[in-house]
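User: Teach me something about this protein's shape.
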Amino acid sequence: MLREYLAYFRAHYRGPFRLVVVLNGCRDHTLDLVEATARELGGIEWLDFPKPIGKGGALIEGLRLAPETDLIGYVDADGATPPAAFHDLVRQMPGYHCVIGSRWLPESKLDEVQPWKRRFASRAFHLWVESLFWMGIQDTQCGAKVMRREAVERIYPDLRTADLAFDINLLYCLKRAGFKVLEHPTEWADKIGSKIRLGRSSATMFLSTLRLRLVYSPFYKWLAPLRPIEEWLYLKLGAPPSRPPAAARRTAPPPTATAH
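Assistant: First, the predicted structure itself:
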């Protein structure tokens, strides 16, 4: 994936770009692979968090870089979104503060369809989210999103959902602040080997979205005595609770190659 993204954007993107990998409690050789690829090709940076901080936690830390750029976005590390599809989101940015890829629009192209259990869970989760937040977005969870610096800077203090429901937190904050969000059809492929445990992940996301809805309600301040129970439930489900920003162990030096 790193090679594909570097090759594509060096060939097709006219401006400078940075590719930053956020490692979230990796216990394999991911960091070694990132370092080796950076030495060989340049153009790669990384943030390494030795202890797991969750998908949302990793994205919160990556979005901390927003003040250093004009546009900032993210994709899943499994390569489900090809670089040309991500670039297509960037091309849609004029007139919008955020453009998100969607797998559920008629024009979307799915190279490999999810198993039916995950498709069913996805649609059920969509109905649950829409009943709570009324955002009118078909696919909140697609891991391909691009945003303007000023939008991220405005909502960053409210990004505290560290688990898989982070995207709901992000999109609701953008909508609530009045930013224009475009849902755009994308190309996407389901990748074999997902580490998501459907039952536990579904329970975590149910709890997390319910909590988020309460946070933005007048009742949340009255629920302060229940917050230790909330944290206990997150830990019982093996999910990271809402958290303040963490600190990375190390960051790579600036990229040695810049595309124009």
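Now, about its shape. Residues 252-260 have pLDDT under 50 and may be disordered. The chain has two domains: 1-53+246-260, 72-242. If you'd like, I can walk through any region in more detail.
User: That's plenty for now, thanks!
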